[in-house]
Amino acid sequence: MSDHPHDGSEDLPLDSPTRVFLGHRELLFSIVYNLLGSVADTEDVLQETWLSWARRSRPPMAGEIDNPRAYLVRIAVNQALSRQQDISRRRETYIGTWLPEPLINAATGSAPAGDTADAAERGESVSMAMLVVLETLTPLERAVFVLHEVFGYTHPEIADILARTPSAVRQLGHRAREHVHARRPRYRTDPHVQQQVTERFVAAVLGGDLGALLRILAPDVTMWTDGGGKARAAGPRPVHGRDKVARVIAAFASHPRDGLHVRYRHVNGDPSALVFAGDSPYAVLVIDLIPQDEQVCGIYAVTNPDKLSRVS
Predict the structure, then answer these.
(1) DSSP states of 245-276 as a string?
(2) pLDDT by residue (tens digit) across 204-250?
(3) Rounded CA gap, 65 and 237, in Å?
(4) Strands 296-302 and 217-226, bridge-based pairing
(5) How many helices (H) and strands (E) does the chain have?
(6) Which residue, among 239, 219, 238, 244, has the nearest Cα to 295 in the 3D structure?
(7) Cis ω on the peptide bond leading into residue 238 (within 30° of 0)?
(8) From the CB of residue 183, how many other CB atoms can be counted at a distance below 10 Å?
(9) Cβ atoms < 10 Å from Cβ of 144
(10) Strands 280-289 and 296-302
């Protein structure tokens, strides 16, 4: 049996451990990615989950697991939590602002079947803006919030996954919801509006139209840029305020890179812009809008080439 199963489950027996795992892989990827914000770490967690599942599926333990889905989710979530300390250490030495790795909606592109980005997009999509807010939670608060608010698990089910009491889980969930909702109101921007404003924003940026840009930006707009020390970024910290953000963008527009072109795709479920230099990905731009408005309150620009390797 392979240590890293690939899809092809239609050729496997219905009760094959590999087929069972692959049947839940999209769910596992979506949950773990929403906990970690990194595809590489998510794949590592899924590999460990698969190894644990493969061991438990062999005699004499085979058949002891009544609910494979619950078992796999529990193992994956706890593997993700166990990696948090290492991930936090890496974030401390990360150069500049850290943003989650963008996931491109493969349904409108050319990613191969079974690709991890495709898998995540067919699961639950959490916006880039929400993922940034989730970074401010503790690992346990984030796990409870994601499992309950995004995937619909009940508090007793989450308690079983995390080996906590339902009362403790409810308290974690309450703190997480208050924290998240204070920073991000519960609303969903009309995707057609977001698409239109994204196109206007990109046209203003690439065209150097400062007036159009100022009309699009909200007064308290914030811009996050993640170059990882390997690509151009606005600075080591987020930039706040319309005038400062406009100056940063104007500086970029005054020294344009040759051969830039844009493809519009969905990133983490939201209409967004993929900027290419020739055939190579140059940046992913995601904007966030004020509720019931067409002004941009958040700009997320990922230019770190390590996070663009799956962009096409």
Answers:
(1) HHHHHHHHHHSPPTTEEEEEEEETTEEEEEEE
(2) 998 888 899 999 999 999 999 999 998 888 778 999 999 999 999 98
(3) 47
(4) parallel
(5) 12, 6
(6) 219
(7) no
(8) 13
(9) 29
(10) antiparallel
The token duo for 153 is: 């698990």
Q: Which residues contact 122 (CB under 8 A, 6 or more apart)?
A: 26, 107
Among 289, 269, 301, 266, smallest CA distance to 184 is for: 289
| Model pLDDT for residues 16-29, shown as the tens digit of each residue | 889 999 999 999 99
- 212, two tokens: 């159009």
Strand partners, 283: 275
**Distance between CA 296 and CA 285 in Å, rounded?**
12
Q: Token pair of 131, please?
A: 């993922």
3-state secondary structure 192-203: HHHHHHHHHHHH
Rounded to an integer, what distance in angstroms lies between the CA atom of residue 270 and that of residue 304?
20
Residues with Cβ within 8 Å of 84's Cβ and at least 6 positions away in sequence, in order, are: 139
